[in-house]
Amino acid sequence: MIIAIDGPAASGKSSTARAVANTLGFHHVDSGALYRAVTAAQARREPTQSRWTENDVLAAAKQVSLDPVPGGFVPRIAGVRADDELRSPAVTAAVSRVAQMPGVRAWVNARVREVSTKRDIVVDGRDMGTAVFPAANLKIYLDAEPWERARRRLIQRDGRVPTEEEILEETSLLIARDQRDAAQSKPAADAIHLDTTSLTQQEQVDRIVSLARKRAGAGRLVAT
Question: What domains, with CATH codes, occur in the chain?
Fold first, then answer.
């Protein structure tokens, strides 16, 4: 069974998808982490982003692997995890541009499809329910108001309650990224939209798990 969760930046896709996978006993696949790993690999080769070409990024991608761990998969660069590097400001600033490169998108999508064989997965990204898994059993499109997405991102990043000025600044950045990512962030026609602005993460998880169990049938999934 494949559950595809799409949505804009900071909509909570990865954390929600991870929790859904854990509840159902599925494997979680975070396509965004792959894009970040490729971006980080290229940044190691050439720090000046203005010099990056698609061919350069694809060459850097050869250093990236998507390896299984309990409950999911993690990207590695040259065989080593680099979680902090993947979430660095430099990678965050460049990953949107990298994700718009057609060759890189094809490379990432191929890796995601490879790990989905013979496994029940919950995969999150921007076009998982459209370009990557158009026949997914369940498609969810998570969204929230930009202000709320900005607030959540700052809390997650800084570990504290942000000021209103900080939220407004982050909101502007998110809106600009939404515009850059618009072509890749369109929901599938048969996706179920879930506005999470006023939902807790547990409420999001519970709704998706309930939908998954209904889709799969009473005997397909067992509550954990």
Answer: 2-216 (3.40.50.300)
User: How far lies 44's CA from each of 13, 52, 121, 155, 160, in Å?
Assistant: 27, 12, 31, 28, 30
Kindly tell me if the per-residue pLDDT of 159 is higher than 80. yes
Residue 48 in this model has a pLDDT that exceeds 60:
yes
β 27-30/64-69 pair status: unpaired
Query: What does the block give as tokens for 81?
Result: 């995890």
What is the DSSP annotation of the chain? -EEEEE-STTSSHHHHHHHHHHHHT-EEEEHHHHHHHHHHHHHHH-S-GGG--HHHHHHHHTTEEEEEETTEEEEEETTB--HHHHTSHHHHHHHHHHHT-HHHHHHHHHHHHHHHTTS-EEEEESSIIIII-TT-SEEEEEE--HHHHHHHHHHHHHSSPPPHHHHHHHHHHHHHHHHHTGGG-PPPTTPEEEE-TT--HHHHHHHHHHHHHHHH-TTT----
| Structural Rg of the chain based on CA atoms | 17
Q: Please tell me which residue, 71 or 186, carries the higher pLDDT value.
A: 71
CA nearest to 72, candidates 12, 36, 31, 37: 31
Tokens of 37: 């790993």
